[in-house]
Amino acid sequence: MVQQARAARTRQLLMRAAAQTFAEEGFVAASLSTISSRAGVSSGALHFHFESKQVLARAVEETAARAISRITRQAEASDVSLLQRLVDATHALMHSLEADVVVRAGFELAGTTPRRSEALDLRGQWQHWVEQLLVAAAAKGELADGIGPEEACAAVLAATVGFEVLGSTDPRWVARSTLRHYWEFMLPRLAPQDTLPALVPCGTAPAPAPACPGAGAVSVCPHPQETD
């Protein structure tokens, strides 16, 4: 049992070291010697757990994909409107990108050029969920008149994927305040006017920072600890 626990810990150390290296250097430039050194284990231990850099990258991507699935499942289970679920999920995703190097690295690997043939499409996974949610929102009358799910999806994806890419070098792009400002700007264009007071652009889900003071006008959603 002790040996199994030690092996699991070594595997986690290696995967996080790989994620850190992939996030900083990209897949092509990352070396197994750098990863094993960063994890504090021998090259032999690395090869025992992961036979190649491709296998390591796949493990990182699969972990990041599971994190995205958890975020979207939690949003789907919440007792709020569909647009609020979208807002909450984007906040959860940006927080994961900011706080979890494995999620960051998963997206970094998704954008690797040349693209690995077996790479998971994390952006495609996110896109599919956003598309499905906005189609359902349109069917329920949660989108403003004249706004279709396709154009709404394009606007949300362009922003969230853009924040993800820019956030890889500047964490301000995935900060809670950045996303709050985006939703303060976007929600009045996406949602019917009579639903705006119930929408919370800084998200309704628990966050590391103090919770938002509650639902209210879209333009008023301060977090006292944030500086803009």
Structure described in brief:
The chain has 228 residues and is mainly alpha-helical. It is built from 9 helices and no strands.
Structure characterization notes:
This protein is mostly helical and 228 residues long. The protein has a domain at 57-198: Orthogonal Bundle (Tetracycline Repressor, domain 2). It is built from 9 helices and no strands. It has helices spanning 2-29, 32-39, 43-49, 53-77, 82-99, 101-110, 122-139, 149-167, 176-190. Helix 1 packs across helix 4, helix 4 (53-77) packs parallel to helix 7 (122-139) and helix 7 (122-139) runs antiparallel to helix 8 (149-167). The chain is elongated.
How far do the termini sit from each other? 50 Å
Under the CATH scheme, the architecture of the domain at 57-198 is Orthogonal Bundle
CATH topology of the domain at 57-198: the name is: Tetracycline Repressor, domain 2
Compute the CA-based radius of gyration. 20 Å
Shape: elongated
State the CATH superfamily name of the domain at 57-198: Tetracycline Repressor, domain 2
Low-confidence stretches: 209-220, 222-228
User: Roughly what is the average pLDDT, rounded to an integer?
Assistant: 87
List keywords for this structure.
228 residues, mainly alpha, Tetracycline Repressor, domain 2, 9 helices, 65% helix, disordered C terminus
SSE layout and pairing:
Blueprint: H1 2-29, H2 32-39, H3 43-49, H4 53-77, H5 82-99, H6 101-110, H7 122-139, H8 149-167, H9 176-190
Helix pairs in contact: 1-2, 1-4, 1-6, 4-5, 4-6, 4-7, 5-6, 5-8, 5-9, 7-8
